[in-house]
């Protein structure tokens, strides 16, 4: 039986409409929120038992509901990306001299609502993936030497529309430590992206560094309705790559790929749980990769934990408002 969570920190964001997404930065001390009021808000979060929040900034620039926000790695500064129904992706950066002074540093426009944004692992540089209802995925890469953003496109990623994007960790699966002398060289990580779409599929892509183009490695077909979210497990030291997908059909599916590099085995899916008739909107991993959170259509969040024998059990529930 699932345990109940006793207390949940909550605060008033002062958004004038529904909040669609929240995202913590790398250190968990900054929180960004996205809302139908067309605003992105940034808060400081105290690192103590109070978890007190302090409003830092309002980022105004979108002309429609803001669906999602994402933070870049702090090595690039305080950078947050947002995407909106207005078909645009906006990238914001905070001034190093003035706390809370965020400036738009880049804007990219699709032909439809932009539904999802995600930054790549910092080992690959400042790279942002954006999924749109126009069916395409754009990958924005900052080139510091020229101070420009390069835009690559996957034009027909999902025929009806793309709902979600997620990058794989930079560390090859199972790589606990660097190879010692005499060992064969470790496989070089490659930039790998998962996307989910309204065509009921999730897809795995990699960037061909020799051409800069994106190639589809595999199409994952187990959902019977829209794939609402995709999430790579962030722990690259695990012996297998793991991807979670959430569907309008109510299913949460765990996908695993044994092996590392380009020569890994094919992806195999297992249904973690079927929430039908409720859809599942989002899935999110703990940093260790042994806990998965799923948000269903009731607004409730369930936490699933991997046991020592590899079985997943429902460990806790957070009731919706």
Would you kindly provide a written description of the structure presented here, covering whatever features stand out?
This protein has about 325 residues and is mainly beta. The chain has a domain at about 165-175 and about 190-320: Methylamine Dehydrogenase, Chain H. Helices cover about 0% and strands about 50% of the residues. It has no helices and 25 strands. Strands 1-25-24-23-22 form a five-stranded mixed beta sheet, with no helix packed on it. The model is unreliable at about 1-10 (pLDDT under 50).
How would you concisely characterize the structure shown here?
The chain is 0% helix and 51% strand.
Count of individual helical segments: 0
Distance between the termini: 21 Å
CATH structural class of the domain at 166-174 and 190-320 = Mainly Beta
Give the fraction of residues assigned to helices: under 10%
CATH homologous superfamily (4th level) name of the domain at 166-174 and 190-320:
YVTN repeat-like/Quinoprotein amine dehydrogenase
Give the overall pLDDT as a whole number: 90
User: By helix and strand content, what is the structural category?
Assistant: mainly beta
Question: Rg, please?
Answer: 19 Å
Give the quaternary arrangement of the chains.
Answer: single chain
> Which residues form runs of ≥5 with pLDDT under 50?
1-8
Shape: globular
Determine the strand fraction and express it as a percent band.
Answer: over 45%
Q: Which series of helices and strands comes N to C?
A: EEEEEEEEEEEEEEEEEEEEEEEEE
By CATH, the topology of the domain at 166-174 and 190-320 is: Methylamine Dehydrogenase, Chain H
Strand order of the largest sheet: 1-25-24-23-22
